Amino acid sequence: MAVVLLVTSSGGSGTLAGILGACITAPHLLGPFVARPLDLARDGRKVLAAACLLYATALTAGVLTYGHAPAVVTGSLLAAAGTCGPLLTGGISSRLPDIVGPQLRTQRRAQGWDVATYGIGGTVGPSLVAALSAWVSPTAAALALAVGTLAAAGAVLLLPFAEPTHGGDRTAILKPGATLALIARTGHLRRTVYLTMIVALSVAALPITAVHMTKILGTEPATAAVLTAPTASATSPVP
Q1: Quick check: helix, strand or coil at residue 232?
Q2: Could you report the per-residue pLDDT of 43-58, keeping only the tens digit for each?
Q3: At what angle do helices 104-135 and 2-9 cross, to 10 degrees?
Q4: Shortest CA distance to 70 belongs to which of 24, 20, 26, 21?
């Protein structure tokens, strides 16, 4: 959202806004590959904290280089941030059993709240970004997101420590290819992936479409259009 507003508010084309926005969202497809370091880590909290730090740094650099460096540089930095995305979503969600304990009922309640926070964040977050963009600037909104992610790095380290599930036997951890094959042949996992991709597509497409339509129809300012665009509730990504 912040990237789309950053580009369009400075006179950039909708095509460029879409491409730079995709630089953040498309790398989420690398989830099965990005997740492996988390599976292999002795302390998963450090991996998640490092991902938060890298996301904040890359997002800040990408935003600050926009308009001052070739678009490919900005896109590369945003893509680096996007690569950390799966760890900031499904990776953190995977810590739920370590936080709430082994009881199935407690875990189900925690998973419910986890999904709810994605929906709340998917609605409130873009609204705050649009509002801050209108009050200050899209650059300030994007930098505020980076600061929030930076703070999350410290919060992640406060989560309870859990022994790795592989018990020291790293050969027991599935490699990305085997993980994808497992998803492909397991019906409920396959359906979950399909639904997650559909929701992700709608959430990613709505703000770009809203901003683009303001130019075609000559309606209200782009920031206001994004603020009022409907936002789909996101489901918790597959760890």
Answers
A1: coil
A2: 889 999 999 999 999 9
A3: 10
A4: 20
Which positions ≥6 away from 43 have C-beta within 8 Å?
A: 161
Can you read off the two tokens belonging to residue 131?
Answer: 């509002």
Contact (Cβ atoms closer than 8 angstroms) between residue 24 and residue 203: no
3-state secondary structure 130-194: HHHHHHCCHHHHHHHHHHHHHHHHHHHHCCCCCCCCCCCCHHHCCCHHHHHHHHHHCHHHHHHHH
Residue with the two structure tokens 């505020």: 144
pTM of full prediction above 0.85: no
What is the chain's Cα-based Rg? 19
Give the integer Cα–Cα distance in Å for 160 and 109.
Answer: 18
Our measurement of the distance from residue 44's CA atom to the centroid of its chain's CA atoms, rounded to an integer in Å, reads 18
Q: How confident is the model at residue 206 (pLDDT cuts 50, 70, 90)?
A: confident
What does the alpha-carbon distance between residue 148 and residue 202 come to, in Å, rounded to a whole number?
A: 24
Give CA torsion, residues 80, 85, 91, 92, to 10 deg.
120
What distance, in Å, lies between the first and last C-alpha atoms of the chain?
24
HSE-up (13 A, CA, CB side) for residue 83: 15
Which residue has tokens 């209200």? 220
Residue with tokens 């070739």: 70
* Partner residues linked to 66 by β-bridges: 69
